[in-house]
Design a protein that fits this description.
With about 325 residues, the protein is an alpha/beta fold. It contains ten helices and 13 strands. α6 packs across α10. The longest helix is centred in the N-terminal third of the chain and has 22 residues. Bound molecules: NADP nicotinamide-adenine-dinucleotide phosphate (NAP) and ligand G4F.
Amino acid sequence: MNKRALITGLTGQDGSYLAELLLDRGYEVFGLMRRSSSETTERLDDIADRLTIIGGDLLDQTSLMDAIEQANPDEVYNLAAQSFVAESWKEPVYTGDVDALGVTRLLEAIKRVHPAARFYQASSSEMFGKVHETPQRETTPFHPRSPYGAAKVYGYYITMNYRESYGMHASNGILFNHESPRRGIEFVTRKITDGVARIKAELATELALGNLDAQRDWGFAGDYVQAMWLMLQQEEPGDYVVATGETHSVREFCEVAFARAGLDYEKHVVIDPRFVRPAEVELLLGDPSKAKAELGWEPKMGFRELVESMVDADLARYGVAR
Ligand code: NAP
Ligand code: G4F
């Protein structure tokens, strides 16, 4: 019989890649979707007719109980979140409600309705924040630098707590930044590649950014959803860092992205203090040794290929050539 999976955050970047992976593996895929007055399913256009959508919200306990009952899943992937770090200073309470307490609501729904379901929590390298060691690994202490990071630390520990308290198969993926042409436009990578395309299309001349010196360990989202799936195939649950083991600055990302379109970033990028954060995570660099050894996971796409594929996709979207 086909396995059944429930994905929260189905409409997001990772939700769309994970849904594709699970469908390819013969799963019956259910997705939790909150009500919206506008269309949010554009990332799912190619697979929409193979998915079962269930209305619900991480803020609403009853809807989560109903979703678990309807999907009766073997595996639950909790990808839903207010995922934009900068926004979390503007909406700290809301971010905590969704990203922290939302995890408890979902775990509690699973525990009460279908405790045998395996659970994946989308934890984040933002939990390392003001890093205590480099590279960061599973044992590195957390020091979150934003309401988002703090909420994700809660989500991490409540996942561990349901595992230890109730014997649930609940795992944390501590994922470092992962990107794709489907990345939300507010995140720096996509903001840059969209900006390159807009400049090339002569719709803009400048791109306003914040801190160009921040460094991130950027991988490809399509590779990272593989690691999520692998975690739930293990006999024992656990917590895993998922990263490339390479770090690059926002400035380097700009250099490669603008060069792909024959442009010099220094002529177009301007610094706007509005995009500088109250507290910055200066450097993230992950050590994925455990995921490689225990899950057999390897990232396939490198930094340059990732940046160039995102630029190419945005140029195509605006109908301009390199
Ligand atoms: P994303 O594109 O922003 O997607 C977030 C998803 O969460 C969307 O489907 C959104 O639905 C849904 N959502 C938001 N609030 C909700 C609520 N109250 N109830 C139900 N659904 C809700 O994020 P992503 O990049 O795919 O990331 C997936 C997860 O991994 C997130 O938890 C994120 O925090 C975490 N993470 C991401 C990265 C990364 O680099 N991408 C790294 C580490 C961890 P709408 O379409 O309705 O807005
Ligand atoms: O692309 P970002 O907004 O991603 P950030 O804050 O690293 O968070 C992403 O990755 C986390 C994993 O570590 C996820 F948990 C989280 O959900 C999200 O997916 O910013 C990256 C860096 C920051 O240092 C920021 O200050 O880019 C810097 N930056 C510089 N100028 C900018 C800008 N970021 C944005 N969004 N916009 C700018 O104009």
